[in-house]
Amino acid sequence: MSSAGLTQATLIKDLRLEWRSKDAINSMLFFALLVVVIFSFAFDPTAEESRQIAGGLVWVAFLFAAVVALNQTWARELRNQVLDAYRVSPAPPNSLFLAKALGNFIFVTVLEALMTPLFIVFYNLRALGPAWQLPIVAVLGTWALVVNGTFFAAMSLRTRRREIMLPLLLFPVSIPALLAMVEATTSILTGEYSAKFWIVLLVAYDLLFTMASLLLFGFVLHAE
Amino acid sequence: MTEPLNPQTSAIIAVADLVKQFGRFYALRGVSAEFTAGRLYAILGDNGAGKTTLLRSLAGLSPPTRGTISVFGKTDLRAVCGEIGYMAHPSLLYDEMSGMENLRYFARLYGIMDDQRCADVIRAVKLDPELTRPVGQYSQGMRQRMSLARALLNDPKILLLDEPFSNVDLRSAREMVALLAGMRGSGKTIFVVTHQATLLDGVADEFVWMEAGQIVNRTRELRTMEAR
After folding, report:
1. ipTM for the predicted complex
2. At what angle do helices A162-190 and A47-78 cross, to 10 degrees?
3. Choosing among A10, A20, A21, A80, which should be mutated to test the B contact, i.e. which has the most B CBs within 10 A?
4. What is the pTM of this model?
C-alpha cells in the first residue's frame, strides 16, 4: 500500500474514533466557547477596539483549544499501547504523522468554523480590508499550529506530564507563526496595512516546520 | 533428567551480549542465545526477570543499550519487521472499533487489502468476524484472542507472544495452545512469555528460563526447570 493510502487509512480511522468518542471536539468547543464569553465580558470593547484586538484574541483562543485536541490525538494511541502495533509494522512513520496532522487540522478547522460566527457577534466585527484573505490566513495559521503541535505532542508522549510539556514545547516555537497570524488578521480587519508580508511568512513557516517534522518524526516514533 | 540444550548452529535469531538498561536498572544483563526456525519456545521466569524486555527487543520495540540482535541475518530489525508478529500484554487494539475494523486497519499497515484475510484470522482464534460490538465491550478473553488475531494478520514467520493466556479460561487457553502448536508445525518460530508454563508442557520444544535479566537455563522439559 502506498504512503498516501496509509495516510488515508489512518486518517479515516482517526476520524471514526473521534466521531465515536468525541473526546477532542467536545473539549475544544467547550474551552473555546469559555474563552470567547469570558474575553467579551472582560474587555467589552468598542467596534474599533475590537478590530485592533480581535486577531490576538481569536488566535490565542484557537491555540489554547488546539492543545486540547493535540493531547487527545496521541493519548488514544497510548491506550492499550496501540502505537506499538504501528511501530512493529513496516508502515512508514510519515504516513502516521501526516494522518495525525491532517486529522488535527480538520478538528481545529471545524472548531474555527463554529466559533468564528460567535466571535463576529460578540465583538461586533467587520473586515475593513480584503476579507477574502482571511480564509487563507486561517488555513495557513491552522496548519502552522497543528503541524508543530502534532510533532511536539508526539515528542512529549512518553514524558510523565505530557499535558504540561506540550504547551511548554509548542508555545515558544509557535511565536513567529502566532505573530504572523495575529498581524495578518488585524491588518485585514482594520484595513490599515497589507497582510501580504505576514502571509508569506506563514507560508515559509509552514513549509519549514512541515519538512522538519517529516524528517524527524521517524526518530520520535521509534524512540523509547 | 533432560540435558541442557546446546546453542543451535542454524539460528534464525541470534542474540549476542544483549544489555538493556532503563536509567540505572538493567532489564537485560548480557543475554546471548540462538533460536532455530520452526520451534516453540516458552520463556519463563519471575516478574522482572527480563522476559518482556527480551520479547520487545526481538520485536524491535526496545533498542539494545549494548549487544546485537540478528533476525534472518539482519541486525536492522526494521528490515524484517514484516516477518514478525507481536502480541503484547495490552491488547494493541482500539477499544472504540469492532474487531474487524481494527484488523482491517492493521492489515493496511502490512499492505494487506483483502478483508478475507482479516476474517480468516478472526475465525482462526474462534471469534466471529461479523461481531459489530466495539472491542472495549469484549471480555478480557475475547480481547486476548483478537490481539492474537492481529499478531497473525501478516502471516509472520516469527511470532512473539507476551502472556497470551492471561485472563483466558482454561478451555480457551488450551485451544490457543493447539493453534500455536499447529502454527509451529507449519514452520513458524514462536516465543511465548507466560506464567502458565504447564499449558505448554509437552507442546513447547524448549523452555527458556530467565532470572535477573539473564537466561539461566534452557531445557526440553518443563519439570527439569521446576526441579531447580
Report:
1. 0.89
2. 150
3. A80
4. 0.90
